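hi! just following up on the protien thing from before. the input was this:
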Amino acid sequence: MATAIYTLCMLTALVCAWLLLQAWRRNGYRLLLWSGLCFAGLTINNMLLVADKVLLPEYDLSLWRTSAALLAMAVLLYGLIWEAE
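and the predicted 3d structure came back as:
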């Protein structure tokens, strides 16, 4: 059951990233770009979660997962600050 939930979370983040980036290409609003890049990073985070918990349970990938999530949030934060100016 956990595998299905991890996979669904990964696919949801991927679809969100794809939709946001498609909307950015159509409209050109930069906040959509930053949000899409954030969700792309969260997709990588969820891929690492699936790899960590399902495919490679003997290895600890928590540092890589946390780094991916931190980078994704930093991209969104940068975009929010940059767009506010």
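Residues 2-84 form one domain.
Helices lie at 2-27, 30-55, 62-84.
cheers
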